[in-house]
Amino acid sequence: GWWVILILALAGGSAGYGYSLLQTPVYSSSAKVFISTSGGDTIQALAQGNTFSQQRVKTYSDLATTRIVLQPVIDDLGLNTTSPALAGRMNVAALLNTAIINITVNDSDPALAAKIANGVSTSLATVVSKLESPTGGAATGGTATVSPVTLTLVDTAVESHKALSPNVPLNTGLGGLAGLLLGMVLVVLREVLDVRIRTERDVKQITDAAVIGGIAFDPKARKRPLIVHLDPRSPRAESFRALRTNLQFLDVGRIDRGFVITSSVQSEGKSTTAANLAIALSDSGARVLLVDADLRRPAVAGLFGIEGAVGLTDLLIGRAGWRDVIQPWGQGGLAVLPAGGIPPNPSELLGSTAMAGLVNEFNASFDVVIFDAPPLLPVTDAAILTRIVGGAIVVAAAGSTHKNQLRSALAVLDAIKAPVSGVVLSMLRVKGLHSEGRYGYEYAYSQKPIDTVDFGVKRSARPLSPSRRSVREAGTHVSGV
Q: What residues does 29 pair with on adjacent strands?
């Protein structure tokens, strides 16, 4: 999920940067006004004047945003605005413990911002002078006195060349941070709410059955399904050989070595798993029979490129003998029995006495018998066949099979007391967040070629022929293993 976090972080940063570019730049300019009082040369009079000035600062600060101060500025500069609107673009603050007022104006035009700040300062000084001037003398025919308060512009506002907003680095950083956090939340939610089987840990949460193998994901699996035969040195082929090795430790107390390969639903790789496992077993010198027991959607004949018109269905209805129907494949000890014609009652045929008799004959003639059966959830064929054969290997596609699907499939087997020999994870990623490290094959290894595999049966496995042995040794010499 790192790519989700990265993409959202980049998208957030880009959005913040784009937002900044679309905003109109705003410039700020400030002017400072000093308040002073006149009258009295003694220290006491000066102190009283200073106190008076500080007390008036807050009053004059509020006065600076009123219409009486702002309207003259609007008229003098010819601004197309109103007093309240102009006040909204201003910030008037009294500096703490001083007699100074800071007048700040924000505008898209830096020169105009400076003119408004200076104009407001001048207008405020004029208005305060009028308001603070005594008028009693004029009312009685006397002479009006001068205002005791004077406002002086001590710091003239100047044009700013740096925009106050937008803050492009800040907006870009905040956008990137928001995208990063959103990505992390999405990844965590995906992990918490994920209902798919992805790793061996997910399988162990559902069943106590052992995970006996992990088949590496191959994007070209549909073009080259028999990878053990076509590319024996690939990581995917190595994963089938690892499954072959683990298979000899399954059900050690059972004499017959027959296994039903099935899955929860279709498209989980059960047929290719059964086919490649059979090839890997035959490469080790074992006599192997691969039976296409999927009488609804047979696939084995197509995988091996053999004739599938006659097969298991013909045996079950007594139309032919199995020795006449099985087809040798390759140079090893592999024989393939196609499904034959599709019958109207597959479940009844697979659960018949004839099927039980065939299973016994197969076990007596081969070291290992692999049955490719239909998925467990759509039909009951695989569960019925497992009762006869004695063990099921359930294939679960990593990243595709739902946990409830695997749980329900195992429940189907448990309901009729059909034993589960193990679980195989197919389409397993060997890199990334959901990878299973133990199934990575990017390391160099050294071992002698295995000529035979002991499957705990009453006969020894057939050794490699001289020609096959010479080919194996030649390949070993070339590889430097």
A: 105
Scanning the structure block, which residue is given the tokens 């692999």?
370
Closest C-alpha to 398, from 434, 373, 441, 437? 434
Q: Do the Cβ atoms of 275 and 306 come closer than 8 Å?
A: no
Instruction: Give me the pLDDT at residue 147, please.
Output: 63
What residues does 27 pair with on adjacent strands?
107
Smallest Cα–Cα separation from 475: which of 276, 283, 226, 272? 283
How far is it, in rounded angstroms, from Cα 91 to Cα 75?
20
Sheet holding 420-428, edge to edge: 211-216, 420-428, 392-397, 258-263, 368-372, 288-292, 334-337, 327-329
174, with CB counted inside 10 A (0-12, 13-18, 19+), is middle
Strands (E), 18-122: 27-37, 90-94, 100-107
280 with 323: CB under 8 angstroms? no
Report, as ranges of residue numbers, the positions in the chain whose pLDDT lies below 50: 45-46, 136-143, 432-434, 437, 439-481
Q: Is 84 exposed, middle or buried (0-12, 13-18, 19+ CB in 10 A)?
A: exposed
Give the start-end residues of each E strand in 117-217.
149-155, 211-216
DSSP state of 105: E
Question: Do residues 332 and 283 touch, judged by C-beta distance below 8 A?
Answer: yes
**Residue 87, CA atoms < 13 Å, CB-side half-sphere:** 14
Closest-CA residue to 369 (of 348, 354, 353, 388): 388
Distance separating alpha carbons of residues 306 and 298, to the nearest angstrom: 12
How far the first Cα of the chain sits from its last, in Å, is: 37
- Asked whether 394 and 263 are in contact (CB, 8 A), the reply is yes
Q: What pLDDT was estimated at residue 444?
A: 32
Q: What distances in angstroms separate CA 390 from CA 107, 313, 438, 467, one per listed residue?
A: 85, 21, 29, 36
pTM: 0.60
Planar angle of CA 86, 91, 95, nearest 5 degrees: 150
Going by the DSSP 8-state scheme, the letter that residue 439 receives in this structure is G
**pLDDT, tens digit (0-9, with 9 covering 90-100), for 136-148:** 444 444 445 566 7
Whether 98 contacts 54, CB under 8 Å: yes
